[in-house]
Amino acid sequence: MKVVSRRQIMAESEYFKQLPKVELHAHLNGSLTEKTLEKLGCSESAIAEYEKLTRTAPTSRSLQECFGLFSQAYNVIKSPESVYVAARNVIEDFAKDNVIYLELRTTPRANVGMTKEDYIEAVVKAIGDHEYKNKILVKLILSLDRRHSKEESEKALELILRMREKYPSVIKGIDLCGNPEEGDFHETIFEKAKQFLGITIHCAEVKNDSEVERILMFGPNRIGHGTYLHPEHGGSQKNWELYLEKKIPLECCLTSNIICGTTKSYQDHHVRHWLDLKLPFSICTDDKGVFGTTLTKEYTLVQRHFDKIPENLWKMTYDSISHSFASEREKQDLQDQLIRWFNVCHPKIVSTIQNAYNNYTPADLDILLEEHQRDVYINDI
Ligand code: IMP
Ligand code: ZN
């Protein structure tokens, strides 16, 4: 990694903040900020604990501990009204971070007074009602939890397919998620879903060569994480060759992997192989609330650690659109937006940032750096 000044990091972060971005891997209940949790009635002490765990600069935690963090959200999101508030707030956060296309995913949950159908209805309503309509296009991916039994997942799929018929332009995909150290991947369920929905599967988050082979052979439209796929990262040569044949786009979530302890450091992150071999991938947040990140931060981290010029990450964003579950027409519109931004805004922002830095006094810079430090893990970059 090259040595850079904080000033350079700020400039890059500003570029990525302004860049219209695409988020393909964001779990609703992992994406809540403390402010949203507070709004939903989370106690002060629970928020303080959450903050302590999520705002400390990356340290390794066990997967079990990471999965425990979702309980803060589940303790307060128990009614359709709270699901609605949570979804609206998350959409708003992404819109403010200049995300122009969001695929939000969530596992339908039932509770006293709320069926799984009510849950899905509440998220669909939030997607339809949000105030940032002209800024961000939102689609919904419904998740199956790998810890659930095959029968339970079959039932969940029935509901998901029924809801898709009702909201075909919103419900676009299905996902397999949950603690990768537990449960299973059931091909037959995804075979059925494939006829109607885009498929994305959390894959190789931990070492599990036989399951990874089954997932790759099945051939989802995208995979999440792919941490233990490359042989240098503990994957088998056979699976890596299979992956290279299929070139399934990867949803890459750097900070999530670091904080969950499945990747040692940013420099060691497996995205390096995707960059070097020009394999398809997109940068995602996974759980921006739980891991204290934003999409802008994730872009800045890739830029810093892998020395990619901003234009390359613009191109990565442009290509990500073709891996999305949006309609062909929507994809075209999004790609047009990105091209317009590149032609009009890219040169302006590059020169504005340059001029701004030339004109700052050292005192101004100190204040800016202070502000920026709260936004980006400068000490970890
Ligand atoms: P929800 O589906 O909206 O409730 O989002 C939180 C849930 O997503 C968690 O309880 C997990 O089941 C799942 N999840 C979030 N992050 C990950 C991940 O990195 N790997 C696997 N599952 C995840
Ligand atoms: Zn995930």
Overview of this protein structure:
This protein is an alpha/beta fold and 381 residues long. It has a single domain (2-372), classed as Alpha-Beta Barrel (TIM Barrel). 53% of the residues lie in helices and 12% in strands. It has 17 helices and 8 strands. It has helices at 6-18, 34-39, 44-55, 63-68, 71-76, 80-96, 116-129, 150-166, 187-194, 209-218, 237-246, 254-259, 271-276, 295-306, 310-323, 328-359, 362-375, and strands at 21-27, 99-106, 137-145, 171-177, 198-203, 222-225, 250-252, 281-283. Strands 1-2-3-4-5-6-7-8 form an 8-stranded parallel beta sheet. The longest helix has 32 residues, at 328-359. The termini are close together. Residues 373-381 have low confidence and may be disordered. Residues 25, 27, 177, 202, 224, 286 line the site of zinc ion.
CATH fold naming: TIM Barrel
The largest sheet, given as strand count, sense and whether it forms a barrel, is: 8 strands, parallel
CATH homology superfamily: Metal-dependent hydrolases
Question: On the 0-100 scale, what is the average pLDDT?
Answer: 89
Low-confidence stretches: 373-381
The percentage of residues in β strands lies in 5-15%
Return the CATH architecture: Alpha-Beta Barrel
User: What's the CATH C level?
Assistant: Alpha Beta
For the structure shown, list the relevant keywords.
binds zinc ion, alpha/beta, 12% strand, binds inosinic acid, eight-stranded parallel β-sheet, TIM Barrel
Could you give a quick summary of the protein structure above?
This protein is of the alpha/beta class and 381 residues long.
